Amino acid sequence: MKPERQEVVRGSGNVFRDLGHENADVEQFKAILAAEIIKALDREGLSVRGAQGLTGIAAADFSRIRNANLDRFTVDRLMSIINRLGSRVEVKVKVRRVQPVELAAAGQL
After folding, report:
1. pTM listed for this prediction
2. Is the pLDDT of residue 90 over 70?
3. 23-105 adopts what CATH topology?
4. How far is CA 42 from each of CA 8, 50, 66, 87, 105, rounded to the nearest angstrom?
């Protein structure tokens, strides 16, 4: 049996946009912030209970972050958690106009 030919599609760089999520940019940013929190916990060898003791933030919140359950978190809350872990967030913003053709292709028109 001959294998099916697969089409290769280049992603946008934002998986949430590629999946058609409405708030794709916010979800991507939250995922990046959560990844940085997880890196900080791993770097310091902190359990969720250890992180709670250090920051005063509930261990359950750290568990949610580790499990990528980010619905309850705002961007500023995640940034606050990073700050309490002893790191700072630097944001660089790049705004680009989206052409109507791109919006239509993404199903947003």
Report:
1. 0.79
2. yes
3. 434 Repressor (Amino-terminal Domain) (1.10.260)
4. 35, 11, 11, 14, 40
